[in-house]
Amino acid sequence: MNRRGLLKFSLGATLFLGGASLVGCSPATAAPGYRILRDDDLPMLRAVTPVVLQGTAAPLEQVLARLDEALASLSPEMLKLTRQLFDVLALPFTRGPLTGIWGPWQQASPQAIEAFLRRWRDSSLNLLRQGYCSLLQLLLMAWYSLPGSWGACGYPGPPKI
Predict the structure, then answer these.
(1) From 25, 83, 118, 141, which residue has the greatest number of CB atoms within 10 Å?
(2) For 60-76, what is each residue's pLDDT tens digit?
């Protein structure tokens, strides 16, 4: 690794871990109607989910409900890591530098969100690539758990018993 790469890695890791260490700053109380998802998580998820699932007929609130159900079944340690990821994406001082989304999520264009996702997917920083994969897997898992998504992938559904 050259000097520039080391500096980029150090800066990214500092910002990411600094934001992640503030997990206690976000309330752990679930948003109304949810078991796990918090009010601070919802703007980011409502902005990112349609971009990740573009081209599908994904009912956003149903996807978020399924995501909430899935998060409720995680181990405490995995839930803590997921909340850290959501906190990094929600906190303005980490969101801006790490995602390029400097304003509120509600004002981010689909193009800006796509650029953020590409930036994390293609990052030289492993932490950002892992964050991208985690976010993508959570949203895809929630979408494919809905019966309305099964036809799009050729799954006929569980056998009738």
Answers:
(1) 83
(2) 999 999 999 999 999 99
- Per-residue tokens: 15: 């910002």
Structure tokens at 36: 């796990």
**Residue 22 neighbours by CB under 8 Å, 6+ apart:** 87, 91
Q: How many domains does the chain have?
A: 1
Would you say residue 160 lies in a domain?
Answer: no
Give the integer Cα–Cα distance in Å for 142 and 118: 21
This prediction's pTM: 0.81
Residue 155 lies in a domain: no
Query: Does residue 21 sit within a domain?
Result: yes
Question: Could you tell me if 49 and 63 are in contact, meaning their C-beta atoms sit under 8 angstroms apart?
Answer: yes
Separation between Cα atoms, residue 105 and residue 115, nearest integer Å: 14
Residue 2 domain-assigned (yes or no): no
Residue 133 sits in which domain range? 12-146
